[in-house]
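Forum: Protein Structure Q&A
Topic: Joint prediction for protein chains with partners

I've read a bunch of threads here and the consensus seems to be that you should model interacting components together rather than docking separate models afterwards. I'd like to see that in practice. Below is the full input, 946 residues plus whatever partners are listed. Could one of the regulars post the assembled result?
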Amino acid sequence: MSFPILSLLILTPIIGALTLSLSSSTQLKNKTIFLSGLWITTGEFLLSLLLPIFYDKSKNGYQFIEFHTWFDKFDINYYVGVDGVSIPLILLTTFLVPICLLCSINSIQNRAKEFVIYFLLLESFIIGVFVSIDLVIFYVFFEAVLIPMFLIIGIWGGENRLYATFKFFLYTLAGSVLMLLAIIYIISKVKSGNIELISDFTFDQQIQLVLFLCFFASFAVKVPMFPFHTWLPDAHVQAPTSGSVILAGVLLKLGAYGFIRLSLPFFEYASIYFQPMIFALSCVAIVYTSIVALRQLDMKKMIAYSSVAHMGFVTIGIFTLTQDGINGAYFQMISHGIVSAALFLIVGVLYERHHTRMISDYSGVTNVMPKYSFFFMIFMLSSVGLPGTSGFVGEFLVIMSTISVSVYLTFFTAIGVILGASYMLLLYKNINFGDLKSDIKQLADLTNIEIFYFSCLAFLTMLLGIYPKLLFEMINKSISLSII
Amino acid sequence: MVNLYQFIPEIFILSLILITLCFGLFNKDRAVSLNTLGFILLSILLLNYGKEFYSSTQISLNTINLFVLSKIILSIGSIVFILLLKRPLKNENLYRYEYVLFLLFAILGSFVLISSNNFLTAFIGLELQSLSLYLMAAFNTKNLSSNEAGIKYFSLGALSSGFLLFGISMIYYDTGSFNIQYLDNLTAISEIGLSLVLISLFFKVSAAPFHIWTPDVYEGSPTISTLFFATLPKFASLIFLFRVYQELNISEIKSLNYIFQMVCAISLLVGVYGAITQKVIKRLLAFSSINHIGFMLLGIMSYQFMSEGTLFFYLIIYLITTFGIFAVLLNLRTVDGEFTKISQLNGLRFTSNSKSISMLVFFFSLSGIPPFAGFFAKFFILSASINDGFILLSIIAVLSSVIAAFYYLTIIKNMFFNKSEIELLDDNNKTGKVIFISSGLIITLFFIYPDPLINLVDTLFK
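Posted by a regular:
Agreed with the consensus. Here's the joint model:
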C-alpha cells in the first residue's frame, strides 16, 4: 500500500499541536481546546483502526513500509513499518489518549492549551517508537517521549512533583544513554541501523553480553524491573490522573516492547545467558512489590506497585523464550495497559471529588456511588486475573510457560497471583464496603462522560478475556519470528 | 613577490577596521551598520570565491576547505553578533563604536590564527584576538566586576601566552623552524615545547584543568561580551587546536595524546560538577561550555572517522544554541539592571511564550535529548569516537551528559514550573527576538530536514 499511513499517524498529532499552539489562547475556552484535542485524537484512533483492517496476517515481516534516506553517510534512514507486535500497542496508545483528554476536561483548569499540546506530542512520539524499524529513529522517539512527560508531571502534578519528575527523567535518561552507546557500536559494526539487518548479524558472545546489558539498562528502567523501579511510585503518585494513565498504560510497555523487538532477536546468546538473572529479578519484583503494595496507605501508590508486579509477569514471560510465554507476556502487556489505566482513572474519579488519595479516608463508597463500585469491581477482578477478564489469559499463559523452565519459577509467579488478589480485594473492600463516612456522603456518582469511557475500557477487558484469539491472531506470526 | 591574493579576507577586515576608525568618530550608528554590511559582503565573497583565494598556494585541499568554512562561520557569527550588540550596550550606557573595533580586531586575529602555517603568525593572531577580548571584558569601566574580569582575564591570558612563546621557542631550538608541520624525530625538548603550546591552547578554549578564569570572566563581563567569548574566539582557537593536532600528528605521540585524553575527560567531568551548584546563569553557562569543550576535544581526537565533519557539525550547532540562549538573556532585564540569577528566570513561561519555549528547546538540545539538533551533534561525535576506539571516554561523555541534564532541567523547571517572583522587563528587541526564534527553529527542524546543514559541512569537505 503506497498510502503513507504510518507517517500520517505520526504527523497528525504534531500538526494538531502546531495549529493549537498558533491559535491565540485568550480567545479559546478550555472546553474548546479540549474538544479540538479530542477531535484530533479520535481521528487518530480511527486512522489507526485501518492498520489491523489492512494488515495481512499471513505474511512475514513488516508491512506499510516507508523508506526515506535521512543521513546518507551513516546509512540511517527514516524507515518505518509495522508487524503484529506493534499494531496492538499502537491501537492501545491511540485508544488511551482520547480517554486521557476526556478525563482531564474538568480537572485541568489552568494552561489547558499546553496540556493538550503536550499530550498530542506525546502520542506522536510514542507511535513513532512503535513504528520505527531503524535503531536511530527508534532511539530518537524513545527519548523524545521524556520531554512532554517531564512537563506534564512537572506542571500539573501534585505537591512533590519536582522531585518525582526529575527522578523520572534522570533515571530514564541514565538508562538510555548506555543504550545509545550500544546502538552506535552496533551501527558501526553492521554499517546500518536497520533492525532486520541487525537481527541477522551475529555478534561475538562476549560483546553480546555487554551490549545486552546496555539495552537492558534502558529497558529495565522503563519496564520497570525490580532494583530500578523506585521512580515509578513517585511519578505515579505525583502525576495528574491522565499522566498516570498514559504512564501505566503505554510508557511502561515501551521497555517490554524493546525487549521483544530488539533484545531477543539481536542478542540470542546473551538472552539465554541472562535468563536466570531476569527471572530472579522478576520474581523478586513480583513477590516483593506485591507485599509492599499490601501495606500502602495511598491508593495510587498501591496501584503503582501492583504495576511493577504485573510487569514482572511480562518480563518472565518474555524471557521464557517460548511462543506461549511471549504470547502470554504480550497479552499481559495489553491487558495491563487497559486495566491499570482504568484503575488509575478510578482513583482519579475519587480524587477529583474528595481531594485525597488515602485509603483510610474512604469507606462505604458503594452506598453513594453504586455505578462507580460496579466499574471498580470489573477492573479490580481483571487485575486479579479472574477468568473471563483479560487479566486471566496473560497470567495463565505466563505461568503455564514457566513450568517448562523451572517449577520454582512457577511457584513464585503463582504466589504473585495470590498476593495480587489479596491487595486488590483489600483495596476494594476498604473503599467500597463498610460504614459510610459522614464526609463522603455528598459524593456524586459517575457522570455520563465517565460512564462512557469506563464502559469502553470494561468492554475491551471482557472482549479480550472471552475472545483472546482476537489478539493472538495478530501477534502469533510476528512473535514466532522473534523466538530464537 | 608575495601573492596577496590569499590574504583578501584579512585585508578586507583590515580595511573595515580603518573605515570604522574614521567613520565612527562622526556617526557610530552608521559605522556599526556598515560593519554588518561589510561582513555580509565578506560571507558572500568567501562562499563564492573562498577556495580560489588559496588556489595559488601549496596548501592541501582539505585544509583550504577548513579555512574557508571556518571563516564563513566566523563572519556569519559576526553578523549576528553585530546585529545583537546595539541594544544591550545602549542599556548599559556603553554604546561606543570602539566596541565594534575590538570585535573587528578579534575577528582579524581569529582569521590569522586559523590560516597560519607558522607558529609565530599563530602567536600574533592569538594575541591580537586575546588583547581585544581583555578590552571587551573590561568594557564596562564603571562596573567593578567588569574591571576585575578584565584584569583576571588579562593576567592569566598573559601567563598562557608566555607558555605559548616558551613552547614555540623550545620547538624552534630543537628543529630550527617555526613551521607547523610534522616532526619526524621528536626529541624530548620539542615534546615539552609542544605540550606547552597545547596547554596555552587549552587555556584559550577553557578546557579543564586550565579553565579557572572562565566562570569569573563570564560572570563579570558585560553579557554581550560573554556571548562573544563563548562563541567566535573559542571557535577559532578550537579550529587552530584541531589543526595543530592534525598537522603535527599528535595522535601518534604517546605522551601528548595521553595529555589530550586526560584533558578531555577532566573537562567533561569538571564542567558538569562545577555547573550543578551554580546559582548565576552565566557561571552555569561557563561550566556547561567546559563540558561541551570536552565533547569537542573528543571530536578532535576522533577526526579520522568522518574527517572534520563531526567536529564542525557540533561546533555549528553549539554556536547556534549559544547565540540563541544569549539572545534570550540579553532580551531580559530586571528592574535593578542586568539579570543574573537563575531563580530570576522563575515563571518566564507566564511572561513570554516565545522566550520560554526557545529556552526549552536550547537547553534540551544542549543536554542532547532528541529530537533536537544537539542530540545529533553528540550522536555523531560519539559515533566517531566509538569507531576510533575511545570507548572509555565515550562512556564518560554520555554519563556526564546525564548529569548535565540535571542542571539544564533545573533551568527549565524554573521557567515552567515555578511562579515568578521578580518582574522581568521585556526589552522587546526585535532583532534579538528574530535571532532566538530562528535559532530555535533551526535546532528543532533539523530533525525533520537535516540536509542543508549536513550538506554545507559535507560539500566543503569534498
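The radius of gyration of chain B is 21 Å.
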